Amino acid sequence: MTNDHHDHAHEDGSPLSDIALRVRALEDLLVEKGVVDRAALDKIVEAYETSIGPRNGARVVARAWSDPDYKQQLLTDATAAIAALGYRGLQGENMVVVENTPATHNVIVCTLCSCYPWPVLGLPPVWYKSAPYRSRVVKDPRGVLLEFGVALPAETELRVWDSTAEIRYMVLPMRPATSVGKSEAELAALVTRDGMIGTALL
Amino acid sequence: MNTIHDMGGMDGFGAIQRETDEPVFHAEWEQRMFALAFGIAVAVPKTDDDHFRRQIESLPPVTYLKASYYELWYRAYSAILRRHGLLDAVAPKGLNPPLTAARVLPVIESGATNRMAAEGIVARFKTGDAVTARNMHPTGHTRLPRYARGKRGIIHADCGVFSFADSKARGDGPCPQHLYTVAFTAEELWGEPGQRNKVYVDLWDSYLDPAVQRVS
Fold first, then answer.
1. Taking the domains of chain A in order of start, what are their residue ranges?
2. What is the pairing mode between strands A157-162 and A104-109?
């Protein structure tokens, strides 16, 4: 991230969009007034583009699959268990992890906005914040999951966690049957973002 | 506020559009808007999540649906800053020092929990209690989704004591109270008998009344 974004057009040569110009003007004004520091803005973007993302959650899941004691801790005090692996902070201050089993499948949403467990999953994808997902997953979770290619047996109970307040949720997916004997790092590589939202099976 | 952001259970928005290998941000201005929000929240009082969300929710529904996610952020923060006089020519007053680059990671890691001391705050409900979500329609910010109002559920967990978003967004102080995870059956919410699915919603004490346990 650099500061040299002040005098160029888009990479394709097109002029900056109206919103891009407005945001730039807002940034310039706030820097001038001493409200924000440009180097801090760069650092924030860098953190969320490079180190805070779903690979963190994947490590948590892999540890839980490998270590029964850790899994127990994760399911009883997720915030502490996740912090033990070094992931903590904004939008993950009060975590709950819900476990998928053959009988129960969990999926997370925020119907009112976009709440999401940042320290373990990073910033949410656009579809998670979109009207089609938010409106429908609470009312027709089975239909939404089918749209994601996830067909669950009719007897599986679906649990939708609408994180409208202070708790942020993450799904602990079922360990794939084919993963026997794999190392923790190999297991982490099997874990996808959508698996931890509950919209994919692994 | 009964407006478009509260969309749980609505129909008609079409298929979910997914993107393969989606980047964290789709344009440089999205990066800058995200980071600006962060910096503003640190430096400017009363720009926390509750104020921010109240502002987004007060946008006209058509605007809300047409604008992209970070465009909504731009509109909400512009309105908040305008109210604070920060878009005027005068020098700002009453601000905290700006967030510095060195403080970014510590601020992210320390978080900003709304959890408060539980001492002296009575929990009116316990796990397993039957409750009814109040039939309330406040014109300000609330976290009680419309689809749950008037519905009966079971306390799944007591999450502890937190400041109350509705009160903070009004500027009325934290009003600390217990927050509960409440389990609602799909049958109760959507009137589909035989559905075993459940929706879990985190609801503050002020949203709930005791209910008679239903014999099933």
1. 18-50, 53-197
2. parallel
3-state secondary structure of B210: strand
Residue environment code for A142-156, b if the CB has 16+ CB neighbours within 10 A, otherwise e:
bebbebbebebeeeb
pLDDT digits (tens, 9 = 90+) for A21-44: 999 999 999 999 999 999 999 999
Instruction: Find, among B170, B206, B201, B204, the residue nearest to B48 by Cα.
Output: B170
> Is A90 in contact with A141 (CB distance < 8 Å)?
no
CATH superfamily of this structure's domain A53-197: Nitrile hydratase alpha /Thiocyanate hydrolase gamma (3.90.330.10)
Give ipTM to 2 decimals.
0.96
What pTM, to 2 d.p., does this model score? 0.94
Q: Give the pLDDT confidence of A120-146 residue by residue, as tens digits.
A: 999 999 999 999 999 999 999 999 999
The answer to whether B153 faces chain A, any CB pair under 8 Å, is no
Q: Is A66 a catalytic residue?
A: no
- Of 2.80.10.50, 3.40.50.720, 2.30.30.50, 3.40.640.10, which CATH number belongs to B130-210? 2.30.30.50
Please tell me which residue in A113, A130, A135, A183 is annotated as part of the active site.
Answer: A113
